[in-house]
Amino acid sequence: MIRKVWPLVVAAVSLGIDAYVLAGVLPQIAESLATTVGGIGLGVTAFTGAYAVAGTTLSKRAGARSTKAGLLISLGVFNVANLITALSPNLGVFLGSRVLAGAGAGVLTALATAAAASLVSSDQRGRAMALVTFGLSTGTVAGVPIGMLIGEQIGWRWTMGLVVAVGVVSMAALAFRGGSMPPIPNEPGSGAAVLKSPQVAFGVALAFVFGVTSLGLYTYMLPMAEDRGLGAWGFALIWVWGIGGVAGSMFIGRPIDAFGTNRLLPILAAALLASFVVITFLPQPAAWLIAVLVWGATGWASVPTVQVALTSTRPAATTSIVAFQMAAMYLGSAVGSALGTALLGSGTTAGSLPMWAAGAQILAVVLAIAVGVLGRKAVRASAAVDSR
Predict the structure, then answer these.
(1) 317 with 208, same domain?
(2) Is there a single domain that holds both residue 224 and residue 180?
(3) Residue 273 · residue 365 · CB < 8 Å
(4) Going by C-beta distance under 8 Å and a sequence separation of 6 or more, which residues neighbour residue 23?
(5) d(Cα 116, Cα 31) in Å, to the nearest integer?
(6) Contact, 278 vs 291, CB < 8 A?
(7) From CA 129, how far away is CA 5, in angstroms rounded?
(8) Which of 64, 137, 367, 384 is least buried, going by the fewest C-beta atoms within 10 A?
(9) Which residue has the higher pLDDT, 189 or 335?
(10) Domain Major facilitator superfamily (MFS) profile, which positions (predicted)?
């Protein structure tokens, strides 16, 4: 059954590329559209904002009648929006297309993750959801550098062409190789109702903090390395972080299914904290390489771990919970990047940023423990209901 998830993984690859690829070609886009880098940077904000709003408000409704139709429509919107981005004649059209792309991506992420979970038995839930995250991490790690290279060699419009091409391939895989898909169960009421659960509220907050620390700090990998005398290792560190991310998201599924999330979440949060501490106090290349590998692995492995932790006792709310969790993560990434810029602007050195991330990560450890405690209570409550 796990093989049926792979068309969804391919779709996630295109999402992973699109979420970050523009950051590497902002100057080229600004020059092409006769505007400023700051103006084009609003496209990243527009994408993230639309991702959060659409994912949390539309994803439940989009898959209500047909899972496959909802996936194909959201993926189609995403592809068309990226094509418009590639052909944008001016800033207005560019920003509008990024809003549309973010909306499609927000809905697609939630539906793809919920669909993956519904395609397998409960004992494979962790592996299925981790595979979607594997697609996201692979798109970010491999697609973004390739997209930047394409942008430098033949232009940023062809970079967006790469995103469209992968999106079209994923749409074809889903349409012709995805087979039939079971309906995604939905709890009655609005999607926001899931936040009334203390565990879900804490889990969404945890996803936000992970976004701030892990993805937000990643933005400053090169200046951090330069400031600590490791400038020559900068690109090696980026690739090591990516390798860790791909490995973490690929291999975390089986431990989730075997050991459960209540134990794993605090371990992942603590390991990420430890990696920031190492980077803060040890400037040796070997220490940084190991710490950055752990950073990438634990940061990405936390995504499906949080998803399974929050949805295992509420499978009918998977779409809404994942929508809020992923929106929180991407918003956290944007906030983390903005906070880093603010700290650097106030005189903080780039090499000190990991210390600030470590401080925030302490909160993540506390939240991870709380999610685990609340998860155990939810399991006991569910077992008590089933025994009646």
Answers:
(1) yes
(2) no
(3) yes
(4) 44, 144, 219
(5) 41
(6) yes
(7) 9
(8) 384
(9) 335
(10) 4-376
